[in-house]
Amino acid sequence: MMRELFMCSVLLLSGLVGCGSSGQAQGFNFLDYISPLSIKREKSLRRSDGLEKIPVLDFIGLVKRHGYSAEEHKVTTLDGYRLRLHRIPGSRKSPPAPGKPVVFLQHGIFASSDQFVIAGPERDLAFILADAGYDVWLGNIRGNTYSRSHVQLSPDRDPEFWQFSMHEMGLYDASAAIDHILQRTGQQSIIYIGHSMGTSIGLILLSCKPEYNDKIRLVINMASIGYWKRPRNFIKLLRDNGEVLQRILLAARITEVFPQTLANGEILNGTCRPGSPFQHLCMNFIQYVSGYSPDLFDTRLVAESFSYFPAGGSTQTLLHFYQNIKAGKMQMYDHGLVGNFARYNQRTPPVYNLENIVTPVVLIYGQSDAVATPEDSLDLLNRLRYARAESVPYDNFNHLDFIWGKDIKKLLQNRIMQIIENSMRHGSFSVL
């Protein structure tokens, strides 16, 4: 009982559950402050409202402030979700031009395309790829700050909007994004790079829709999420206590979690920024979740990232992760006995058939990653037909270092570029 009260209090006090939209108001409005999408997302650093606070840039602004081209594309999935894709077609070093090879980046859980462009051109893979002559596209899955829309359902009024997990993201979101990219660019295939849940989305797509093996010529997975065999730290805690969290979320009918709001951004940024009396506690907790990495951990950048992360998602996505952690399998969402029979015609959810994946897959893992452990990456390697795995050459490389770590260009990005360039010159299977 005490655990339930404690976890419920944390959820309520943190403001990390969706509260619906309250519309616009003059002056300060508390509901606007805690409502999803309440952040004023600017496209440039120029301010016309007289406020002193640094604006939170949207993807276009984050990219264009460094002198790179940026585009936004709207895509509707087969089940009616409206997604926004982002694109960096070129840079000063490699201006936009037709015929460039396409690389698609897919973010992780409760994140957005912003995660790949916050650090800037010296670190972020998206900019490095654009400078090297690639046409860079970035996905945004249903329910996050850029894709919180549907042709019929309202995210604020219809609970049905939030009835999805990473299964639908792979089945519908990734497929719609890739089809749009291929149609727009005229290319025959893409290179898919995922981080964290972004790796799961790619695996789900290729296992459930094998025809996309012809549309994806190479997969590079950073911190792969597949089978959970040896959980550490927070993931182990979630496995052992997730049933309590699940009961709270379902009983309270909470359908949206971790939305991007002004409140969350200011509270988390203020708590974790340099000079805050709580910074040490904040950073210790983040490393408890993601893994110990004191030398690569960029405290300033991590604090700044809280203006963009978390970016929202469904309760069902969180519960899907918990179910797979508890089961130690990569399986479809467990809807319960009745729901499973209705959807799958069997008592338990089916396990994803990774044998359907014939696209070459490169798994890159961090030795200190407490979310996607090295052991789990190697376990996944043995389940894929055409794959190889390698460790980032640094002992204390954690889950967040893949996107925001110091020295990431030398430790990771240069190696990814080498893998891509080898595949372009000698064929995708040459990287195995």
UniProtKB/TrEMBL annotation:
Is Glycoprotein a UniProt keyword of this protein?
yes
Residues spanning the membrane: none
Q: Name one GO molecular function term.
A: hydrolase activity, acting on ester bonds
User: Which Pfam family, an example, fits this chain?
Assistant: Abhydro_lipase
An example GO BP is: lipid catabolic process
Q: Which residues form the active site?
A: 196 (nucleophile), 369 (charge relay system), 399 (charge relay system)
Using the record, list the residue span of the signal peptide; answer none if the entry has no such feature: 1-27
Q: Where is the Partial AB-hydrolase lipase domain?
A: 62-119
**Hydrolase keyword on record:** yes
UniProt xrefs under InterPro entries: AB_hydrolase_fold, AB_hydrolase_lipase, Lipase_euk
Q: Which UniProt keywords apply?
A: Glycoprotein, Hydrolase, Lipid degradation, Lipid metabolism, Signal
Question: What family does this belong to?
Answer: Belongs to the AB hydrolase superfamily. Lipase family.
In Swiss-Prot or TrEMBL terms, this protein is called Lipase
Say which species the protein is native to: Nasonia vitripennis (Parasitic wasp)
Question: Lineage in the entry?
Answer: Eukaryota, Metazoa, Ecdysozoa, Arthropoda, Hexapoda
